[in-house]
Amino acid sequence: MKRTLHGVTLAAVLFTGGVSLAQTAAPSTLPATKSAATAKGGMLDYKGFMAPSDPKAFLERLHHIHQSEIKQAKLARTRSQNPDVTSYADTMIKMHTDADQKLMAYAESQKMKLADIPKPMNDVEKKAMAAERADMEKLQALKGAPFDSCYMAGQVGAHDMAIGKVMAAMQGMNATGEMTTMLTHLSQELPKHRQMAYDTLGKLAQTSLRNFIDGGEQAG
Questions:
Q1: Percentage of the residues of the chain whose pLDDT score is greater than 90
Q2: What is the mean pLDDT of residues 3-10?
Q3: Are the C-beta atoms of residues 163 and 23 closer than 8 Å to each other?
Q4: Which residues have a Cβ under 8 Å from the Cβ of 181 and sit 6 or more positions away?
Q5: Domain of 105: which CATH number?
Q6: % residues pLDDT > 70 (the chain)
Q7: CA torsion 166→168→169→172, rounded to 10°?
Q8: What is the pTM for the complete model shown?
Q9: Which helix (DSSP H) or strand (DSSP E) does residue 46 occupy?
Q10: In the chain, how many domains are there?
Q11: I need a labelling partner for 55 at 20 to 30 A (CA). Which of 4, 28, 39, 185 fits?
Q12: Residues of the domain holding 152
């Protein structure tokens, strides 16, 4: 009973957080005006979201995002027993693998050699990357329902950040050709991924609440 209470409390907190994120999520289509983003210290800032103004540095971060998504999704395939979570993980592996292959092909065509782990450009990025490593270490120590809640809540936040980076790049980078096509595609696909994560997180919360209620009835 105590364990069940903890599970439903955690799920309720995560679900509430998901609601607040959903209310401020980036739109699936981004404005065409590029003047909205400002550049400072080599970074583009659009409504609090930041991305490098240098195309190579930006692509390195996108490559890192894709690889991180694939790595976490593969971990989910071994740590989760929830069909909704594993289905989501399968989708992330396929989508981010395809996107990363296209990104790397484009980088190669532009004679760019991308680092797998970008070098932080400022303290904000340094702290964000440290937090990302800590989150991965936490996931590696979990399995089952605790893993599911942590993974899916993290996916909602991670996709908010990824959408923000793409927004900043679209608003402030003078992208053309394949780069523009890539950014436009991501601006349409990432919000879909985010919604999938949010919906799955909601299902986890509902299951935990149902288990809590059933446990209380049995105890009574």
A1: 65
A2: 43
A3: no
A4: none
A5: 1.20.1260.10
A6: 79
A7: 160
A8: 0.80
A9: strand 43-46
A10: 1
A11: 28
A12: 2-219
